[in-house]
Amino acid sequence: MKHFALPVLLALVLGTPAAAEDTDENGFSLMEEGARLFMQGIMREIEPALDEMEDFAREVEPSLRSFARSMGPALQDLLAKVDDWTLYHPPELLENGDIIIRRKQPAEDLAEPKNEVDL
Predict the structure, then answer these.
(1) Which residue among 31, 51, 89, 93 sits deepest, i.e. has the most Cβ atoms within 10 Å of its Cβ?
(2) pLDDT at 101
């Protein structure tokens, strides 16, 4: 029901230009006041989710810092060896636990397109 109410509310608010000319005691038009109230309502709705996200970020920060310290040098070496990540398939985990990254095509196939005629 919420998904239906939002477009209807926006259509009603945006579809009445004459109402936008009326102002309240603070000098805001009805349109501005409606937009302000709408944004306040949105912020009240998402505030709990933002608080949960902040708590989660605080919780995982030490683990992420530790991961960056221990894996940072290895990832830098890997990045230095690979010029273009679009040339590779996503990493695959094999049954024995190995992780492989397969190349999509040989480099020479990508360098010169086939079936083209120079004019």
Answers:
(1) 31
(2) 87
